[in-house]
Amino acid sequence: MNSITISNLKITNFNDIIKIADSQFGKGYLSVNELNSYLLTSLKFGICAKLNKKLIGFALIQIDNKNHILNLILKEKKTINEYLVTSNAVGLIKLVAVEEKYKKQGVGKTLVEKSISSISNLVDCLLSVCWINKSGSELAPILEKFGMLPIITIPNYWKYDSIKLKYTCSICGCPPCSCNAVVYGKKLSIFL
Fold first, then answer.
1. How many domains would you assign to the chain?
2. Residue 192, domain member (yes or no)
3. Is the dihedral of CA 129, 130, 131, 132 positive or negative?
């Protein structure tokens, strides 16, 4: 594969990102409004993987205090709060997706590596909610390569969210989604 380039999220990437998200997570899972929120603050950002100027993958990342991050977690907040008890600034790798025909070629690994390197000196803990469907998880082994470990497995993680927001899971179809999630974490040391 030719060289992959990584660039910051731009509004001109939205259509390509939505297409990838629809095919990987399900129609309507990621909205233009949510993508816009990643352009409005320095605490949220996105990166895009491109091959010959074609967008083939993306990651969405945000930094916040543990209380705001906990508000983004759909279930099992108590367990995750216990994990974050000593954390101040938390980095959340919210989404990583790669176009189907470019999977297993290092694109996801590159996106995760760039996501972590972009925020690791700003946070004392990393989190990622990893999608586990009937065929397993493509992201979990990548997160583990970078030292992230499973904190908790949450059955039917998106069930109520899929009903409320009316998105169609790429595996389950129409709501409710019955896919599970594993929340991954990694504690970091910040030296000032």
1. 1
2. no
3. negative
